[in-house]
């Protein structure tokens, strides 16, 4: 999980390892979460399937940035 503060919101990019065929390379589902203080604001749901944990986390953070920018 990758976290940062953006325009007063705490945002997280999540990477959830997908369980697939043992012969396939690992893949990660990406998602994002936004909070302010200790209050939940919004979560993305699954944004897609990514080849690396880092790519999945970056997608979650990018989603959170865009959500805040469009609702702020």
Which parts are unreliable, with pLDDT below 50 for 5 consecutive residues or more? Answer: none
Q: Mean pLDDT, nearest integer?
A: 94
Oligomer: single chain
The number of domains is 1
Strand content: 35-45%
Q: Helix segment count?
A: 1
Radius of gyration (CA) equals 13 Å
**What are the secondary-structure elements, in order, as H or E?**
EEEEEH
Silhouette: elongated
Which percent range fits the helix content? 25-40%
Total strands: 5
Largest sheet: 5 strands, antiparallel
Q: Could you explain how this protein is built, in words?
A:
The chain has 72 residues and is of the alpha+beta class. It has one domain (2-71). The chain is 26% helix and 43% strand. It is built from one helix and five strands; from the N terminus they run E-E-E-E-E-H. It has one helix at residues 53-71; strands at 2-6, 9-17, 28-36, 39-43, 48-50. Strands 1, 2, 3, 4 and 5 form a five-stranded antiparallel beta sheet that branches. It is elongated and about 45 Å long. The protein starts with a strand and ends with a helix. 22% of the residues are buried. The mean pLDDT is 94.
Q: What's the arrangement of secondary structure elements?
A:
Elements: E1 2-6, E2 9-17, E3 28-36, E4 39-43, E5 48-50, H1 53-71
Antiparallel strand pairs: 1-2, 2-3, 3-4, 3-5
């Amino acid at each position: 999980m990758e976290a940062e503060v953006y325009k007063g919101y705490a945002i997280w990019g999540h990477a959830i390892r997908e369980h697939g065929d043992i012969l396939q390379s690992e893949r990660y589902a990406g998602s994002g979460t936004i909070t302010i203080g200790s209050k939940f604001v919004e979560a993305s749901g699954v944004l897609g399937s990514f080849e690396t944990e880092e790519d999945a986390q970056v997608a979650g953070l990018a989603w959170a940035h865009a959500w805040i920018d469009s609702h702020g």
